[in-house]
Amino acid sequence: MLELGFYGSLLLRISVDVKRKDFKEQVIHHLATIFLLSFSYCANYIRIGTLVMLLHDSSDILLESAKMFNYGTGWRKTCDSLFVVFAVVFLVTRLVIFPSRIIRTTLLLSMEVFEPFTGYYLFNVLLMVLQALHIFWAGLILRMVYKFLKGKLEKDERSDEESEADVEEDDKGKEKKMDQGDCYCEKSKENLNSKLSMLTNSCVLNNLTHHRSSVANT
């Protein structure tokens, strides 16, 4: 129930969080995890649900710790060490243990105990969705590891395109606003000058008219 509340909060917060390249994958992952947690809890699949949570949380702890040392304290070496350990744990748990032990048990070995039913297909489809997401994120992690070994890793691989695009969009938006502001100021100045010239002309005409009328009266 604590894990379900945690992923529920992540799903609600993701709409106001920084949108990265894997935004859609994050939404799919949170929804699949919430369905899996709810289904395993209601169907009393406590052991399989606990194993899935254990495999996922074992690497997530390392990832959050690496982020904490990177953004919070700036301990770069500690962050790099935790990132390497995280990459190894992630690849082993989610690309080796998860498909070979968890999915194999739920998909094949469970058929030796009972016949397939609706929940069997739902449960295994959601687990395979998670596995597909694991492969996607493993590719990003391997790219980050490659850049790390080359000494070119400066930020999160997921934020490269997103951050640059946001900066460009922000710059373009600011330029557009500045251009619009300049155009508006120029138009305002032109309108003000035209009104002043009209007012001046009218004042001059009134003075001339008044002067002529006074001369005629005289």
From TrEMBL:
<feature type="region of interest" description="Disordered">
    <location>
        <begin position="159"/>
        <end position="181"/>
    </location>
</feature>
<dbReference type="InterPro" id="IPR006634">
    <property type="entry name" value="TLC-dom"/>
</dbReference>
<feature type="compositionally biased region" description="Acidic residues">
    <location>
        <begin position="159"/>
        <end position="170"/>
    </location>
</feature>
<dbReference type="InterPro" id="IPR016439">
    <property type="entry name" value="Lag1/Lac1-like"/>
</dbReference>
<feature type="transmembrane region" description="Helical">
    <location>
        <begin position="27"/>
        <end position="46"/>
    </location>
</feature>
<comment type="pathway">
    <text>Lipid metabolism; sphingolipid metabolism.</text>
</comment>
<keyword id="KW-0472">Membrane</keyword>
<keyword id="KW-1133">Transmembrane helix</keyword>
<dbReference type="Pfam" id="PF03798">
    <property type="entry name" value="TRAM_LAG1_CLN8"/>
</dbReference>
<protein>
    <submittedName>
        <fullName>Ceramide synthase 2</fullName>
    </submittedName>
</protein>
<feature type="compositionally biased region" description="Basic and acidic residues">
    <location>
        <begin position="171"/>
        <end position="181"/>
    </location>
</feature>
<feature type="transmembrane region" description="Helical">
    <location>
        <begin position="82"/>
        <end position="100"/>
    </location>
</feature>
<keyword id="KW-0812">Transmembrane</keyword>
<feature type="domain" description="TLC">
    <location>
        <begin position="1"/>
        <end position="150"/>
    </location>
</feature>
<feature type="transmembrane region" description="Helical">
    <location>
        <begin position="120"/>
        <end position="142"/>
    </location>
</feature>
<comment type="pathway">
    <text>Sphingolipid metabolism.</text>
</comment>
